[in-house]
């Protein structure tokens, strides 16, 4: 009887540590996504600069690369490289997911933004610099080609 109790206790402890580890991974994912969003928000109003990757000026992929880099995740330089080489495709957005846009559905991505929740995204706009806008924005919505979770 004591042996059965010890075996059951050992199994329970193993399962408990498994679920704790899974929770730690989910928490770590949330932490770096939340950190990337926080970094991007701290740069609201920074002017747009083509090829910009510093707080002196960002382009769209520069902002995303910089924000995720400060959160501990290295990303490639361009929106297309991010789209084709990083993360996995998602159809239901969560805060921190990368949203990709193209001039038409058949072309490669030329713009990237970070989804921040509540139907909003943060991005570097050529006209307004780093800003928050709605995902259903009449300019961006028809150009949306998909999202990736890093």
From TrEMBL:
InterPro entries xrefs: NLP_P60_dom, Papain-like_cys_pep_sf, Peptidase_C40
Stretches assigned to the NlpC/P60 domain: 30-150
GO MF assignments: hydrolase activity
Pfam family, one: NLPC_P60
UniProt signal peptide: 1-19
Keywords tagged on the record: Hydrolase, Protease, Signal, Thiol protease
Membrane-spanning segments: none
Protein family (similarity comment): Belongs to the peptidase C40 family.
Name the record gives this protein: Cell wall-associated NlpC family hydrolase
Organism: Neobacillus ginsengisoli
